[in-house]
UniProtKB/TrEMBL annotation:
Pfam families per UniProt: Epimerase
SUPFAM superfamilies: NAD(P)-binding Rossmann-fold domains
Protein name stated in the entry: NAD-dependent epimerase/dehydratase domain-containing protein
Taxonomic path: unclassified sequences, metagenomes, ecological metagenomes
Gene3D superfamilies found in the cross-reference section: NAD(P)-binding Rossmann-like Domain
Length: 120
């Protein structure tokens, strides 16, 4: 039986590279894109995790916008960012905990999540 990996954001650059690598070592891939699933919908996430029972979940999804945009002044931009980066992540963590507790979860992010620091 092939191990199953779910890649959320499978059509992005990292998702495509990861998909190719995992397939080359014998994984079956469940690729999730914004066209195939609403990751902010907990029922859809629940159905996916309970049926696929993936060995690994790679959360590569992101809501991209220009770093020059002021997210604090645009409520729609802020709301969409929260939906993808927080709500969807929580959906996957909750459903993995309930339906597939042996699954491993990988969350990709950006160095921009860290505030500038003079410490280092």
């Amino acid at each position: 039986v092939k191990p199953v990996a779910t890649i959320v954001g499978s059509n992005g650059q990292d998702g495509q590279l990861l998909k190719k690598k995992l397939k080359s070592i014998g994984y079956s891939i469940v690729g999730i894109t914004s066209d195939t699933m609403d990751i902010t919908n907990s029922k859809e996430v629940s159905d996916l995790i309970s049926s696929a029972k993936p060995k690994e979940v790679y959360f590569l999804a992101a809501f991209h916008h220009s770093s020059e945009e002021d997210i604090n002044k645009d409520l729609k931009l802020f709301s969409k960012s929260i939906d993808i980066h927080v709500i969807a992540t929580v959906n996957f963590l909750d459903e993995i905990t309930f339906h597939s507790p042996k699954s491993r979860f990988f969350y990709a992010s950006s160095c921009l999540v860290f505030a500038p620091s003079d410490i280092l």
